[in-house]
Description:
By secondary structure, the protein is an all-alpha fold. Helix 2 (about 45-50) runs antiparallel to helix 4 (about 80-95). It has helices at about 30-35, 45-50, 65-75, 80-95, 110-115. The chain has one domain (about 10-115). The radius of gyration is 14 Å and the shape is globular. Iron/sulfur cluster binds next to helix 2. The site of iron/sulfur cluster has 14 residues, from helix 2.
Amino acid sequence: MGVASDANWGDRAVCKSSDPDELFVEGAAQNRAKAVCVGCSVRTECLAFALDHRIEHGIWGGMTERERRALLRRRPMVTSWWRLLETARVEHEQRLHAGAPASDGNRILPAQSLASR
Ligand code: SF4
């Protein structure tokens, strides 16, 4: 299921049943909070939502507000993160199906690869 077609991604959020305050922490606690997102199946959707809505606080899609601000500054021409991340996901899955290795030999989700650019 693609990003653009999945309006109910929040239903599958790993953090859905946890205390929301755990994702709105400061300093070193943010690294612990980000760990919650590592195995979340809707990480890309979550990040796209936060970027497109310019959400300024909290951990979204495994990124802190500072990391998201930096990403927005690096890519000022992006008008739809939702569309960009969906395209990145499709291309990533096509490469995997074609047998091409991921850039570092591990499976990298689009949200993770964008964050490192
Ligand atoms: S990526 Fe993180 S913040 Fe977003 S829904 Fe998943 S667990 Fe929650």
